[in-house]
Specification:
mainly alpha; two-stranded antiparallel sheet; 8% strand
Length: 224
């Protein structure tokens, strides 16, 4: 099936953003935005779980329990993700690359299931990876599942309110085209956060070591 004309640019944007994020995490190069590839080293496991400030949310071994201000661990498996029921903590906890990537992958996989799958998956079914290689692979699989779901819809589906029944968002009350736009927004902004954290990790690496044990950035006091 050929994608509806108004869906095509959103699929193209999604493809670009997912490829760029994967390259930013895995290397060996990423599109710098000016037509020149920038060299990128693969993300390490230490970097993946790096907590640059106190009180971070991350993915954690189930046996270790939830992190600061989290009330439970979401997902299934040996590793799960810091979470809490509404209302969420304020200010929001700072989250690690591992947390952000797990959040993205879960969202993509579950929305794909609630668009063109079983309509049954919940966060309790999502297997969280504490391994960087596994997490990057999970993101790739989840992105492909969402893309496949998109390519099955037609113009009628794009205008259908509640076409996606994803239970953790406004999907049941929104036209599907708005959900497609929202997913792209999630990928773009969380992908940018992951890229920034990679840059910060590199910049904060302790001088003279191998770059795997960076110092925490200093946090200036607020003027407010």
């Amino acid at each position: 099936m050929q994608a509806p004309s108004r869906l095509a640019p959103l699929v193209e944007q999604f493809d670009f953003a997912s490829r760029r994020l994967t390259a930013r995490m895995s290397g060996p190069a990423v599109d710098s935005g000016d037509g020149v590839d920038a060299e990128v080293s693969p993300m390490t496991g230490v970097e993946f779980l790096w907590e640059p400030v106190p009180g971070c949310w991350s993915v954690r071994r189930l046996v270790d329990g939830a992190g600061p201000r989290a009330t439970f661990l979401a997902g299934t498996g040996d590793w799960e993700r810091d979470a809490t029921s509404c209302p969420h903590p304020w200010p929001p906890p700072f989250t690690t690359i591992a947390w952000r990537l797990s959040h993205l992958s879960e969202m993509l996989l579950l929305r794909a299931d609630h668009t063109a799958g079983s309509d049954a998956l919940t966060r309790d079914d999502y297997v969280v990876s504490g391994d960087v290689t596994g997490a990057v692979a999970e993101f790739g699989a989840a992105a492909e599942a969402w893309r496949t779901a998109l390519l099955r819809v037609d113009d009628v589906a794009l205008d259908t309110v509640g076409y996606c029944t994803y239970p953790h968002g406004s999907d049941p009350e929104e036209p599907f085209l708005d959900i497609v736009w929202w997913v792209n927004q999630e990928l773009l902004h969380h992908g940018a956060e992951v890229a920034l954290l990679r840059d910060l990790y590199r910049a904060c690496a302790t001088a003279g070591n191998d770059g795997t044990t960076p110092t925490r950035p200093s946090i200036a006091p607020s003027d407010s």
